[in-house]
Specification:
The chain has about 375 residues and is α/β, with parallel strands linked by helices. The chain has ten helices and 17 strands. Strand 11, helix 5 (about 220-230) and strand 12 (about 235) form a beta-alpha-beta unit. The two termini are about 20 Å apart.
């Protein structure tokens, strides 16, 4: 077994604290990765605080992991010691259902779905001898110094991407890239992005790189100014006059707002046959005006992260086009303050933890 150190919590109402636990050593088809950087995703906060009512404690968050391979199993052939690699939201799936066989592991239809990088138990059917190959009831994520992952669920980080910049692409990047690709956003399309945080600014950058004309919708003047700084058109969500002028003008809209919100005003902005896709919130959404949908054959949909292939695609796409998230690097000791700022919307635009800071930890690593 490997002794791992990280930050975790055992309750929804306590801060993240230094935590020591054990990981299994790399099996025949696994790689052991020294974690260099881990992005801070809003879903980490939802999970830590049990806002989705499914958190398994103790919880060690983190699913935007970039690190270096330090050990490989006997039958690993996709990665080698020294490789710079990434791990996103999934570390396994059933590998047997139709979506998995079709390269869409993020829509795995096995009873337990895919195996999450943290906050199991989502035990996949692919496990050897039907046992939990990760050796416990819940998986632990990248707010730690080491992870062990099946080689098939490990991505390659392109040399043109800085490792700290690549980290948020593993969730924020693919979560927005996947729907843009699925709904075939192309050069000349009018694309609207609701929200301009970690997901929203990546969505806007990716859509622009695909050749689309991008308009950002936000609730604050500060975010409007940020959008202008990036070269995007911006509209305040409560500017009814501006919204009225944009009626029936968008080929595709993507909502990245991380909480329940009303999408009806934006459905009116869609062209006939166009789609608005929700990726930021897993809450039950407010009801939609079906008359507005029916009269123009508009569509409301949603999308869940992205497949392994899409995750590699978006990493390569960002490297090719020289784009990535705007980040602020923090030490792990600042994670609780970072959560507060994310909730308040004060971060521009994504926190990334430098996991080398774990070595500076002066407190004892509890075992909960």
């Amino acid at each position: 077994m490997i002794t791992a150190k990280g930050y975790g919590t055992k309750h929804s109402f306590t801060d993240l604290k230094p935590y020591q636990f054990e990981r299994q050593e790399a099996g025949a088809h696994e790689v052991e990765i020294e974690v260099l950087y881990c992005g801070v995703c809003h879903s980490d906060i939802h999970q830590v605080k049990n806002e989705w009512s499914n958190t398994v404690y103790p919880c060690v968050p983190g699913h935007e992991i970039v690190g270096r391979v330090r050990k490989v199993g006997a039958h690993v052939n996709k990665h080698a010691v020294g490789d710079l690699v990434g791990v996103g939201c999934m570390i396994d799936s059933c590998r047997q259902c139709e979506p998995c066989c079709g390269g869409e592991e993020n829509y795995c239809e096995s009873p337990n779905s895919w195996l999450a990088t943290y906050n199991g138990p989502m035990v996949p059917a692919s496990q050897a001898d039907g046992e939990n190959i990760y050796g416990r009831d819940n998986t632990f994520g990248g707010y730690s110094d080491v992870v062990t992952v099946n080689e098939d669920f490990v991505l390659k980080i392109p040399a043109a991407l800085k490792p700290e910049v690549a980290a948020p692409i593993l969730c924020a990047g693919v979560t927005t890239y996947s729907p843009l690709k699925h709904w075939k956003v192309k050069a000349g399309d009018q694309v609207g992005v609701l929200g301009f945080g970690g997901l929203g600014h990546m969505a806007a950058k990716l859509a622009k790189a695909m050749g689309a004309e991008v308009t950002v919708f936000t609730r604050t003047k500060e975010k409007l100014d940020e959008a202008a700084r990036f070269g995007f058109k911006g509209v305040l969500e409560d500017d009814n006059d501006a919204l009225e002028k944009l009626a029936m003008s968008f080929d595709f809209m993507l909502s990245t707002v991380p909480e329940k919100h009303d999408i009806n005003p934006f459905i009116e902005l869609l062209k006939r046959d166009a789609t608005i896709c929700v990726v930021g919130a897993l809450d039950t959404m407010k009801g939609v005006d079906n008359q507005e949908l029916a009269f123009h054959r508009k569509n409301v949909s949603a999308s869940l992260i992205g497949s392994l292939a899409e995750t590699q695609e978006v990493l390569d796409f960002c490297a090719e086009h020289g784009i990535g998230p705007d980040i602020e690097i923090i030490p792990i000791q600042g994670i609780n303050d970072a959560y507060k700022k994310v909730i308040k919307g004060d971060v521009r635009f994504r926190y990334v933890i430098d996991m080398a800071s774990l070595k500076d930890e002066k407190d004892d690593f509890a075992t909960f």
